[in-house]
Amino acid sequence: MVNFTLECIDCGHRSPSGGAGGKCQRCGGEWQEARYDYATLGPSLSAMLANRQFNLWRYQDLLPLRNPSNIVTLGEGGTPLFHGYNLSLMLGRPYIYVKDERQGPTGSFKDRQAALAISAMKENGITEAVVSSTGNVAISYSAYCARAGIKLWAFLTSMVPPDKMREVALYGTQVVKVTGTYDRAKELAGEFARQRNLYFDRGARNIASVESMKTLSFEVAEQLTRLLGVTPARQPNGSTAAPWRAPDWYIQSVSGGLGPLGVAKGFWELKQMGLIDKMPKLGVIQAEGCAPMVNSFHAGLEVAEPVIVPRTHIATLSTGQPGRVYTLLRQHILKYGGTMESVSDQEAFRAMHVSAKMEGLAIEPASAVAFAGLFKMVRAGLIAPDDVVVINATGHTIPVEREVLGDDWAKVLSGEATEATPRPQAEGLVAALERLDERVRRIAIIEDSPDAARLIRRILQARGNYTIDEANNGAAGLALVRQNLPDLIMLDLMMPEMDGFQMLDHLRADEATRKIPVIVITAKELTREDRERLSGQVEGLLQKGSFMDEDLLSEMTEALN
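RESULT FIELD:
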């Protein structure tokens, strides 16, 4: 049996554990947090975890469920943490890690919330419940309620994609479609539950919901320790480092903000138990068209100013009234560091392309908001070159909204034969296949770093139909260019034997190659003399680790035209 108490965050009153948690017995406050015996758990936790499966329930000693027999599980938690290798190269931040929450039972990090919340409902004898959602919560709750035998009513806004609504209904949930904002749907759901005396899930005020998100922190700390080792001791006396490793940054896109609120509590608990030696900074990212937290944070407001009419295509991030969650996150960021940033829908859609084409990572637009936020934070210099960054990837791309790909995402060839001209039609199909390459441009990559060459090649392959030649030193590159006469040259400056400067001199001295445009991509810190030497010789200059794929494509387009 797990021992925990409930502490009111308004008056500090503590009371014995009480299931899913209600109002404070002293002041009537609706915001309470679970507290555990950290002094006892800290020294023994690692040993307790040694023989447990790597899933959400390995941390059951720090979760508010009294009896393990009430656990409702579909295999949640234990999701991979992997190195974003290509993103790290592109951004010049070598320690970017992706927490792949797409691997949950229904494809989102909300499965953690559903697992613990529905288990708590079962423990408290609840047989019928009401939830309001922008999409993913309803899907997760529907799956777990189906498994637990709990009838669920889900109030969804009309902005939720129809495919998500159908998925909710597939589990047997009663779907109520509300024409209006998510905040209005939440009001109606609460009133419906009150009239019928049904249990209403209160989101971030539900203790089980917040507590479930702590498991993200616990897993990340364990996984980073395996991948990178413990954080080196910073104390001048050389004292032993904490046994687990926390990242420097945790970044997540938010609607209501429950995820990072629980993650922050998880890292706080690890710090209380002496398992980590620092608190990560939080990167809270919202869609620009519905960013009440970001707007209020940058305006210095203690209480969020709501967005009455969300203006974003990303329906799952359309919470206009974040309530007290904003205040709690703001307090955490002011104390431990971090930021709140917003990105446009188009920036999110571009981030979807980048993550898919550079990392093979297919994420939904709401999750892509976090990646777009990461790009923005790197460009703003908020993330140091050696910072360890963990970003939450959640949700799947199906259905992919039309706004992401547009109408021209595939090349169309007619393979149908006609009775009148069967043979010419076949020839026409072959000709059409050949014409797919009509606008191909030949590009030469002269780069001695295999990783950098691979990154540039992947950007080109993902964004256009190019013939690519490669050489790993200046002499071989010069011979390649003279032989193939490419339309464009991507050139590194720092290479053995013949460097980029010398190769440029040879190119400009040769009548056949002097007019081929060159874009320099270099890690070298250019001196004033270097820049004068390149002036008039190259069409573009990009610094390695500080350009995005669209920057490269923009330079290419200008050079080729």
